[in-house]
Amino acid sequence: MKIKKLLVVVALAVLLPCNFAGAVDMPQAPSTGAKDMMQILGTADADKDGKVSKEEFIAASKKEVEEEATKRFDKGDANKDGFLTQEELKNGEMKMKMEEADTDKDGKISKAEAIAYAKSRAEDNATKRFQKLDSNGDGFITKEDKPKHKGNK
C-alpha cells in the first residue's frame, strides 16, 4: 500500500503543472528520504537491476499520469460523449488550455488528446524530478543517491 501511495504522490508531483482541478489540495512531492528512495527503486525499477534509469522513471511516471488523467477525464466529461468542451473544462475535473491540448483543432478535447497532453507534461516534469533524485549524476537512481535539498546542492 505504501508503494502505491508513493507512486500516487510522485504522479501528483508530476501532474500539478497540468493544472488539474483541486491541485491546491493535493499533497506536495515527497521529501524523498532514504525510505522513499527504496520505494522508488522497488516500483520504477522495471528490469529489477537495483537502479532506476531515466527511461524507467519516465515510463513509471507516464503510467501513473495516464491512469489519473483517464479518471479525471471521465469525471469531467459531463455529457459522456467522449470529449471535453470548453464548458466542461471550466466546470470539470481537468483544467488545461484548449489550444494546447486540442491537437486536431476541432474545438474539443478527446480522451486520447487529454492523455497525450498529460503525458507530454509528465515527461518534462519527470525529467526534472529524475535529475534531482539522481544526486551523483550517473544517470540512475540508486540507494546510494542522496536527495538534493535546497541547502544541499
Key traits:
disordered N terminus; two-stranded antiparallel ribbon; 5% strand; elongated; 153 residues; mainly alpha
Rg of Cα set: 17 Å
The number of distinct β-strands equals 4
Q: Spans with pLDDT under 50 lasting ≥5 residues? A: 1-32
| CA-CA gap between termini | 32 Å
What does the main sheet amount to?
Answer: 2 strands, antiparallel
Mean pLDDT: 75
Strand order of the largest sheet: 1-4
Overall outline: elongated
The helix count comes to 6
Kindly estimate the percentage of residues that lie in beta strands according to DSSP: 5-15%
Query: Structural class of the secondary elements?
Result: mainly alpha
Q: What is the H-and-E element order?
A: HHEHEHHEHE
Percent helix: 40-55%
